[in-house]
Amino acid sequence: MEDTPQSIQSWVENYNLLSLEWRVTIAVFAMVCATALVAFIVSRIIARLERKFGETKNLWDDAFLHALRLPAVGFVWLQGVYWAANIAKRYSDAEIFKANNTILKIGIIWLLVWTLWRFVKQAESILASPAKMRRPMDYTTVLAVSKLARAVVVITAALVIMETLGYSISGVLAFGGIGGIAIGFAAKDLLANFFGGLMVYLDRPFKVGDWIRSPDQEIEGTVEHIGWRLTTIRTFDKRPLYVPNAAFTNISVENPSRMTNRRINETIGIRYVDVAEISSIVHDIREMLENHEEIDSDQTLIVNFTQFNHSSLDIMVYTFTKTVEWVKYHAIKQDVLLQISEIIGSYGAEVAFPTRTLHVADAVRLERDAEQGQADEDGEGGDRPDYREADSLSDYNKDGKADKTTYGDVDS
After folding, report:
1. In what order do the strands lie in the sheet with 262-270?
2. Dist CA 255 CA 213 (whole Å)
3. Which of 211, 302, 305, 212 lies closest to 253, judged by CA?
4. What is the rounded CA–CA span in Å between residue 220 and residue 345?
5. What's the rounded Cα separation, in Å, for the pair 136 and 145?
6. What is the phi/psi pair of residue 55, to 5°?
7. Cα dihedral: 239, 203, 246, 211 (round 10)
8. Which domains are present in the chain?
9. In a 3-state reduction of DSSP, which class is residue 381?
């Protein structure tokens, strides 16, 4: 694999009709053209194999061929360019050609890493797809495993490349052990986020697509991505929120996506004048909820008259819907409240609103009687206006005296 094809090398050395420079140039050009042709043929062959194997039920051969196609073409180009550079190396003193063998080895390692990387991506899409798997795996778990697999591939490739370049792996590992302490102190926040992400993957308090919120922080939205350092959350006003994974080790997280029901918890106030109808209203509301097709009767259902409030007689309505969808829940809640309103109205009752009753003392009558008595003693009662003609409180002024505009002048 590392040697130049003998036919080309023999032609360059023995074909004397052209100068050596022209022979080398033609040989290099011919090698590049042949490489392009072979790369095209290899790509077409693998594409045809992909279509052929795509007709079978086995998904893994499709994934392998798809992962192999581009790296295989890359290998053809790598080998062809190596041969072309090897021809030029024999007749040139350029320093760049001395690295041919090293570049070839590193290139092959890179192509292997590229192939494995693409295969892991294909496996990730297969394992998490309901269309491809009868029992697909959880996407968050698949994502964590695929990231770990890719990290292992990259680290292994890096160590092999370092060994190829002449570095001792044992020395590198020893340096990593010593330097890891300093790096750990310098990157403690980064490591905290890494282990926070690891805990999210292991404990799985939420996954991609879940709606989460934190009562401790202003965090609420839909999880879009869980990385090793950050978790991306799309808030309900469509803004991206990037939360360091270390935060999830110190805060409480609610996951409403995993709720089994949604709750309706309302207090309905009835007027005091409708107290005689309370029992019947409560009974009909309970019966309506028990027969409602969207209310889960297996969950707690409470409809009771609970208290005499300041302006109303309060009825508590406590029940759960079958759905957990936010939009559908509000439609069901609206229907329930409208039916409750109809039940209240069917008894001639009304929903109460805050009111206040003002009781005014009968100070006007007391003052009138006192003044009348005093007038009788003085013999002047006949000339004074009769206060009994005042039919309402508005006929008196604020001091309890008759309004002068109605009854004429009144002495104090």
Report:
1. 262-270, 313-321, 302-308
2. 7
3. 212
4. 40
5. 14
6. -80, -10
7. 10
8. 6-186 (no CATH), 204-257 (2.30.30.60), 259-346 (3.30.70.100), 364-407 (no CATH)
9. helix
C-alpha to C-alpha distance for 127 and 401, rounded to whole angstroms: 93
Which residue is it, tokens 């996407």? 139
198: nearest Cα among 227, 156, 174, 240: 227
Statement: the pTM of the whole predicted model exceeds 0.70:
no
**Along the 412 residues of the chain, how does pLDDT read in single tens digits?**
445 565 565 655 555 555 666 666 777 777 788 888 888 898 888 888 888 877 777 777 778 888 888 888 888 888 888 877 777 766 666 666 667 778 888 888 888 888 888 888 888 887 777 777 777 776 777 777 787 788 888 888 887 888 777 776 666 666 555 555 555 555 567 777 777 877 887 788 888 889 999 988 888 999 998 887 889 999 999 999 999 988 888 888 999 888 999 999 999 999 999 999 999 999 999 999 999 999 998 999 999 999 999 889 999 999 999 999 989 999 999 999 999 999 999 999 999 988 777 766 665 556 666 667 666 666 555 554 444 444 444 444 444 444 444 434 444 3
